[in-house]
User: What shape does this take?
Amino acid sequence: MSVNEAALQAVEDWQRRLVEHRRAERNTIERVVAQQSLVKQLNGPAPTEALLDSIADGGSGGSRQMVSDAAEAMPVMSQPVSAEELDYPQWSTDSLIHRSLSENGMTRAIASDYRCWHLVTIKMLNLGLLPHSTWMLGGRLPRVLTEESPQAISDDNQLSKQLDEFTRNVLRRGGGICVRKALFHLDGMIPRAWWRAEIATDAAAVEPSLNAQDVYDRVLRPVGNTTLWRRWAEAAARSGTRLAAPNVVAGLALARIANPLAASHAQVLRLLRRTMHVDVRQVQPAVLAVLAN
Amino acid sequence: MLLQSVPRYDDTDDTAEASRDWPDASYTADAMPVGMVGVDGWRVTHHLKGAPGIESLISEGSAVFAVEARCPATMHTKTFRPTNPAMPERVDVSLPLEMTSGRVDLLPGVLITEECKLDPAGTAWSPLGRIVVPVGVWLARAAPVFATPQGYEPLRFVPDDTIEPEDRFTIKIARTPDIRFEVRARKSRIEKIRHSRDLSGALLFVWATALAMLPEIGECEIEVGSDGTSRVPGSRMADMLLRELEAAGVTELWNRDEQGNVNEAWDPLAAASAKVHIGPHVPDLEDDQR
Assistant: This one.
């Protein structure tokens, strides 16, 4: 599948206009104008148009059309998901998102690009597959943020921070915010749902005693903010993908089954340390589980 | 068993873990891109000297040269071993394009494939005598090769012996994921094309035919910016090709005027001459495609 490079670049530029890696720079007047325009329009009846307008940023109709066409070419799910399903992820939802998108052409190559996920979001919003605008914004938008002048918001730290949070919510409910590329799978609600199910499915394929839901529930299901999923994902990003090998994920799942009360971060660290000089694909998950415990 | 320490030669620049138990050894590897349809491919050649214990395990068949390929962006990882027993130092790596994005790290190493006894002669481990090494251990690691993604290679050669002998070749446009030209010909003819590096050779005609298709490919449309610079926003391959031709002095390109007409001065054969003259990179064939 060929994704229009110029459309991807437009999405990248758009994100750079809206949020800065360093939050200290959030309240420049240009940024506040861009943020206010996005959330204000997104709060209205046409969220797809809001995103397209924001990405095109007053550019030519051609560039808006180009982004719209690129979004149209992206794979999407075949049925809608609710706000509750996305806010409280379960295997049933994540596997549905994964299966549905994969059947329609989602691959790891596409899924590793947060810009593609923003295009996917645009198409899904257009088709009514994602929840209402309030969900995209992460809550009800205070009137002051739409009615106050950009200069007044920029001058008020509290207001500019609030506007920045709403903007980041919109991005995280789309493709995510690209701060560190290696951690793309932690940001963006739909991308991480796809990745969790992708990793669980791969791991289950190498260990006959496990099914994908076992792996998901034991290792990848996000519960709270200090889950094994987050520990695993951060360590996988740092360890040059060794932890992402299906054998290792399956081994971790078996380790959790054998020793569910063990500290998950200790299991991850032990596996990392003990497989330093080993080709993990050569090692059975059951052996890796022993190493983790 | 996996926790057991063994002598190793590690040249990965990971200072915390690096060790050179064979002080006189040297281990390097180089990677050459190879052309295949729909995959990123490299041929990695290993060069290990001065570690007799490891070398004898390789010749006995208890260890092999291997390459661990990692794509950090997609978290896809796979280990490759030699496929040709006559050339144990050569490892072919191929990753499907849908599983890679951006940089691919190739980590060459020597991998233990069956439990064996290592002779540590020449290392500080010598007094211990032969040391048992379990399966799956990396006994040696060379510095990683950060491979350039193959998505920019315009030509992909595919051997196709169903093509009639009198037909020279066929070219079709492939989108995997960027645009590229899939050149199909009989295997023997591909060999001739690959080795014809002079201006009258078959390679010139392959390039000319491929370049002539550019104006008809929507993704390859040229945009001229307000500063007069040209670029191809829809295809990275075509964009790189454009820059390469411009650098070679080709000023008449496949851009269209306001009425949508292709630049009449665009001459695919002249451009192909420049491309071939530049010194074409013609990818080798992958073994399993022959």
Residues 278-290 of chain B have pLDDT under 50 and may be disordered.
